[in-house]
Amino acid sequence: MAQAERGPLLAPGGWVSIGMIYLYGVFSTASLSKIIPILGDVGAHLGAPPARFGLLISLMTVLPALLASVAGSVIDRLGAQRALQLVAVIGVAVNGAYLATDSLSAFMAIRVLEGLIAVGAYAAAPALIMATTPAARRGRAMAVWSTYTPMGVSLGLLMSGSFAGTDTWRGGYWVHLVLFALLAASSPLLPRAPRAHAGTARHAGLFAAWGQRGPLRLSLTFATLIVMGFGVTTIYPQWFARAHAVPVGHASNILSLCTLLMIPSGFAAGALLARGRRDTVLLTTLLFAAVIISVPLFVPGLAEAGRVVTLLGWMVTQGALIAVVVAALPRVVENPLQGAAAAGLLSQLAALMTFVTPLIWQPLLQAGNWRGFLAVIAAGAVVARLLFPGGVARLRGPGSG
Predict the structure, then answer these.
(1) Residue 309, Cα to own-chain centre: how many angstroms?
(2) Does 1 fall in a domain?
(3) pTM for this structure?
(4) Which of 18, 81, 208, 284 could form a disulfide with 204 if both were Cys (CB 3.0 to 4.6 A apart)?
(5) Mean pLDDT across the stretch 317-343?
(6) Residue 50 has what pLDDT?
(7) CA dihedral defined by 25, 27, 31, 35, rounded to 10 degrees?
(8) Does residue 368 form part of some domain?
(9) Is the dihedral of CA 363, 378, 270, 349 positive or negative?
């Protein structure tokens, strides 16, 4: 009854409703990336040595790496809307804690706890979309959801990049606190998904998603894309600043603006899939393009303008790749009312790779090994193609039931 009273604008499964859920993914991803532009400030003000910069980025992924798939199964039982309400409250508390500490150890502990935001959002939000969206719209809705990554990364870089190197270097945490407070205030408007049958939920078990081949292979594919895409994001502001003798804050702003191009490319990939394009073919084409584009992305001697154009091409391929993989989630999930478990598995493996990724890329950056960047990208492309689950070649389009 409460859902009906909201009217068509906020009807479950409508684009406004999907958009509200989408913001949880965006703001949660901003939690991961907002530290990147201010790593130098954390070093200068809190005493973090450069050798710990990779760890500082990765710490937020510890709890998702340990808890995400189990949390997804719990969310399937308790309800995704309640989980998202809790995510917003945690977001307010964590950002407030960052503003209150002057200790590096406390800062790092808060960074670990910040991972609770990702644990809840990355499982509950896509599960709520899958459970409340009609089947004919579900594939397109998940393609839209996939763009939360570039939007969130760009938002985080922009929030902190504007304050990097200034006395108000923590300003991004104030902005993020306000954004999560707005989510908390509007959370009663979130749709409520029907519960999975209790007997089915008990039979599935907390670790059921690990035993499902489709969700597991898709999650491993997504994790491999993390190594490629997030890896570039973690090092590019510093690498670009060194290569072109510009401030890191300036390089971060360039990266954040280029990252926004992943959003329309994700939408375009979703539209192609909805019209019946084969996801395996599209994935293969995009992976090949990513390997080719990575060469001018890192090869020394390219002018700044040429580098920016290449970066735009890289972001187009990454946005489309993520959309293709995430849009396949509904077709590999056995029951759309238990989507949080599969989404949690995808989040957990992505978190594991997000933790490992800076530890791979930061040493290459410190050594100036740009050929190592190319090798990681090429290997990732091969592995992602081998892992991507086949079976259903096309996603459902608008006319399918």
Answers:
(1) 23
(2) no
(3) 0.73
(4) 208
(5) 78
(6) 81
(7) 130
(8) yes
(9) negative
